[in-house]
Amino acid sequence: MASNLTLRPYRPADFETLYEIDQACYEPTIAYSRRELRNYLRFPGAECVVAETGVDKPAIVGFCVTAHEEDWGYIVTIDVLGAYRRQGVATALLREVERRLAASGAKEIALETATDNAPAIAFWQKHGYRTRGVKKGYYPGGRDAYSMVKPLA
Fold first, then answer.
1. Which of 45, 46, 52, 40 is nearest to 14 (CA)?
2. How far apart are alpha carbons 145 and 137 in whole angstroms?
3. pLDDT one-digit tens code per residue, 109-121
4. Where are the domains of the chain?
5. Distance from chain centroid for Cα 11
6. Residue 70 burial class via C-beta count within 10 angstroms: exposed 0-12, middle 13-18, buried 19 and up
7. At what angle do helices 15-25 and 34-42 cross, to 10 degrees?
């Protein structure tokens, strides 16, 4: 799948599609509102990479929002539609955002993921992220999150 994928920068016309993907990927208490997603996309140092499939009529199947400040990077969210998971889309997005963050001077990337989301934890660990600690009550409803980091070479 990843070989049929095109990665490109976010365009404002993509917003509603990204919002719909985020709603599909996360339960309502965790998915971003339109306002939250817009704010993350406008955050100083924010960047969004979009994954598309198809040649004649490209369709967005995933995206990743990051932030960068000085020597640190942060992954805000990585979203891939269910039908395209386990096909290399998230890995392709992650490699690209890590490359971009490193090129911008980031020495370390951080993120949070729910402590009860075993597939996400496995994904991040597979790609070199390690748990730095637990943020109690990080998510709505009191769910805890692992704070994870990865140094960049």
1. 52
2. 7
3. 999 999 999 999 9
4. 2-109
5. 16
6. exposed
7. 120
Per-residue pLDDT reduced to its tens digit, 33-59: 999 999 999 998 999 999 999 877 889
| 3 — pLDDT class (breaks 50, 70, 90) | low
Superfamily of domain 2-109: Gcn5-related N-acetyltransferase (GNAT) (3.40.630.30)
Q: Would you say residue 132 has pLDDT above 70? A: yes
Q: Which residue matches tokens 């993509």?
A: 14
Provide the residue type at 112 as one letter: E
3-state helix, strand, coil in the chain (%, to 5): 35, 35, 30
Cα–Cα distance measured from residue 17 to residue 102, given in angstroms and rounded to the nearest whole number: 28
pTM above 0.70, yes or no: yes
Q: What are the residues whose beta carbons fall under 8 Å from the beta carbon of 56, sequence distance 6 or more? A: none
Residues in the chain: 153
Q: Does residue 44 sit in helix, strand or coil? A: coil
